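Sanity check

After download, print the first record. It should look like this:
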Amino acid sequence: MTAPYNTIDHLIEDIVTLPSLPGAVSELNEKLSEPDCSLSEIGEVVSNDPAIAMKALRLVNSAYYGLGNEVGSVEQAVNLLGPKVIKNLVLTASVFESLGRAAEDLLRHSVTTGLAMRAIIDHRGAAAGVDADEGFIYGLLHDVGIIIFHEFLPKEHERAIQMARAGEKPLHLAEIEIIGVSHADAGARLATTWKLSDRLANAIAGHHDLDACPATEYRSLAAMLHVAEYVSAQAGFEPLPKIITSTDPAIWAEAGVSSHDLPLILASFFDSISDTEELVALAA
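Expected structure tokens:
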């Protein structure tokens, strides 16, 4: 059997229409690139998209941020958190908008993978190459390609799921056999379409197979994302029911996570699990 789409370009041209990045995020990125951009201008950009502004305020007041005092306005949030955190906050809120179409299993898996990625980055510190808030976004987006397949190729993807459930091969390889590309390929293309960072797109592309990471300098991020997904799945948050998430010790080595590191990472991860339902509700 020959898969119908041998490249992601072929798939995008023929059948898939990727969603656009919300205007608030695009405009915010532009504003933040201006050296003389003021905090009031940033607040105005966020406020101009009521849906994103509301989600951002709910998120900043969630246990995930743990600020203690309630933030009542976008302007207050900007002044309190600063431009970099606001950018991650608004992007997270935007990703929640996209993930709102996902089944609850996949949504919880995405949130908990974000929490696991955050725990890994907190543990590794500067060696991780990204901050913890950005790492949370990596986890949220890592399986967004599954949503794309559900929407545009539901029959083909269901066949791939059944192949994976039968134990014939991991889901991403079943997708390549039946569709021609994996959900990691589709997710990486979405990140590129949204003009997100190269390191994020590469991490998504390689989180099942490091050789699929186009830029070798980002292999460690892809490996960390792989470990985060595995931790989430092993904690009972599988992306799809009865799909086994496999792993490879060599990827853990690339991620810089050893058996000595794991207890501390897991302790941090399980401490944050209580935030899961609140974050899932934000995406709904």
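If your output differs, re-run the checksum step. Summary of this record's structure: The chain has a mean pLDDT of 88.
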